[in-house]
TrEMBL record:
<feature type="disulfide bond">
    <location>
        <begin position="204"/>
        <end position="248"/>
    </location>
</feature>
<dbReference type="GO" id="GO:0019878">
    <property type="term" value="P:lysine biosynthetic process via aminoadipic acid"/>
</dbReference>
<feature type="binding site">
    <location>
        <position position="226"/>
    </location>
    <ligand>
        <name>NAD(+)</name>
    </ligand>
</feature>
<dbReference type="InterPro" id="IPR036291">
    <property type="entry name" value="NAD(P)-bd_dom_sf"/>
</dbReference>
<feature type="domain" description="Alanine dehydrogenase/pyridine nucleotide transhydrogenase NAD(H)-binding">
    <location>
        <begin position="174"/>
        <end position="317"/>
    </location>
</feature>
<feature type="binding site">
    <location>
        <position position="230"/>
    </location>
    <ligand>
        <name>NAD(+)</name>
    </ligand>
</feature>
<keyword id="KW-0457">Lysine biosynthesis</keyword>
<dbReference type="GO" id="GO:0004754">
    <property type="term" value="F:saccharopine dehydrogenase (NAD+, L-lysine-forming) activity"/>
</dbReference>
<feature type="binding site">
    <location>
        <position position="130"/>
    </location>
    <ligand>
        <name>NAD(+)</name>
    </ligand>
</feature>
<dbReference type="Pfam" id="PF05222">
    <property type="entry name" value="AlaDh_PNT_N"/>
</dbReference>
<dbReference type="InterPro" id="IPR007886">
    <property type="entry name" value="AlaDH/PNT_N"/>
</dbReference>
<dbReference type="InterPro" id="IPR027281">
    <property type="entry name" value="Lys1"/>
</dbReference>
<keyword id="KW-0028">Amino-acid biosynthesis</keyword>
<keyword id="KW-1015">Disulfide bond</keyword>
<comment type="subunit">
    <text>Monomer.</text>
</comment>
<keyword id="KW-0520">NAD</keyword>
<feature type="domain" description="Alanine dehydrogenase/pyridine nucleotide transhydrogenase N-terminal">
    <location>
        <begin position="7"/>
        <end position="142"/>
    </location>
</feature>
């Protein structure tokens, strides 16, 4: 039987350096008998040569459009905005299942061309219902890094907002940078920050804690909370008594506020940085109603308004935190996905993939008739 061919797209968004396949996972697929074609990419964090060295075939940027119908197209984020019908099986995050703007026209391209979408956001372990691969760990790790940088910056540059940041070539570079900032902050404050992480048992929470530890925050200064600790209902003085709060919960329902503008007015407040990794910014149930806008790498913080007195408090609410560390976040994500990628040669009989196809068919069935022509 001819080997199954996976075709890795070059991402289309200029700042998207992450990749669904990495040289490590591509090599594992090739070793298992797959052919891996990799589009040359001007944006990917991995150089084209890193792929050719492990036996992948480099193909022109954008050549997925003309690839034979049976090749499986693998990518990370949305396809470029085009309208031609799609004939392939596509593995990617498409962001079209939650009524996002324009979802009908994008999704309709698949049934119009006889193609299939296997959306990475909805790949679940059939036994536990948990996602098989997600970017949470890297999000918490990066969010915590920016929160620590912001704490130090407030001390060394009072009244100036944290400047923009760009993605780091690797984790070590980020850790060194945060360590240097913390050393400068410690010189001013006479100590390192106290940090509280809520949602500490989840993917983002584990990443947030690991960053603090790798940056040198003593473990006794990291408060790790999850469901048990918040069950009593907030607002929590343990948050206002900490210097930095990293929120990593998965918000499933309305819960009491963890912190709000009133609780920030508590005399003696220490809290000066909040990183809302969960970034439920516009969700009416957001348990951190102290800010209203998503922030970006270019402008990472917003001040909390209406505090009248006390130290300033900055909020970071970036919704694409893993892009700060494209190399490691891609490795972690692709590594978690690998056991399932290895089953793509028989995907119709593998529950993780066949359930994703079932969901695709359900969503296609909900499309308005007029977009199918
Ligand atoms: N900002 C970003 O770039 C980014 C990237 C990835 C994920 N996220 C978001 O981060 C959130 C967490 O993702 P995850 O993959 O870590 O989820 P997860 O399910 O692995 O972990 C969530 C944790 O939150 C805990 N939790 C839930 N409600 C809580 C409460 N009321 N009090 C205390 N703990 C509570 C859970 O017990 C769990 O341990 C999600 O909303 C996700 O969309 C953001």
């Amino acid at each position: 039987m001819a080997p199954t061919v996976l075709h890795l797209r070059s991402e289309d968004k200029p700042l998207e350096h992450r990749s669904a396949l990495t040289p490590t996972t591509a090599k594992a697929l090739i070793d298992a008998g797959y052919t891996v074609n990799v589009e040359k990419s001007p944006v990917r964090i991995f150089d084209d040569e890193e792929f050719s060295k492990i036996g992948a075939t480099l193909v022109p940027t954008g050549s997925w459009r003309d690839a034979p119908k049976e090749h499986i197209i693998v990518g990370l984020k949305e396809l470029p905005e085009e309208t031609f019908p799609l004939k392939h099986v596509h593995v990617q995050f498409a962001h079209v299942y939650k009524n996002q703007g324009g979802w009908e026209n994008v999704l309709a391209r698949f049934p119009r061309g006889g193609g299939t979408l296997l959306d990475l956001e909805f790949l679940q372990d059939p036994e536990t219902g948990r996602r098989v691969a997600a970017f949470g760990y890297s999000a918490g790790f990066s969010g915590s890094a920016l929160a620590l940088k912001s704490w130090a910056w407030q001390l060394t540059h009072p009244n100036e907002p944290l400047p923009g940041v760009e993605s780091y070539p690797n984790e070590d570079a980020l850790i060194s940078d945060v360590k240097a900032d913390l050393a400068a902050g410690k010189e001013k404050a006479g100590r390192l920050p106290r940090v509280i992480v809520i949602g500490a048992l989840g993917r983002c929470g584990r990443g947030a804690i690991d960053m603090c530890l790798k940056a040198g925050v003593p473990k006794e200064q990291i408060l790790k909370w999850d469901m048990a600790e918040t069950a009593k209902g907030g607002p929590f003085k343990e948050i206002t008594e900490s210097d930095v709060f990293v929120n990593c919960i998965y918000l499933a329902s309305k819960i009491p506020h963890f912190v709000n503008v009133e609780s920030l007015k508590t005399p003696g407040r220490q809290l000066s940085v909040v990183c809302d990794v969960s970034a439920d910014t516009t969700n009416p149930n957001n348990p951190i109603p102290i800010y209203t806008v998503a922030t970006t790498f270019k402008k990472p913080t917003v001040p909390v308004e209406g505090l009248d007195g006390g130290p300033p408090c900055s909020v970071i609410s970036i919704d694409h935190l893993p892009s700060l560390l494209p190399r490691e976040s891609s490795e972690a994500f692709s590594g978690d996905l690998l056991p399932h990628l290895l089953k793509l040669n028989n995907w119709r009989n593998e529950p993780v993939w066949s359930n994703a196809e079932k969901l695709f068919q359900e969503k296609v069935a909900s499309l308005p008739k007029e977009v199918l022509n």
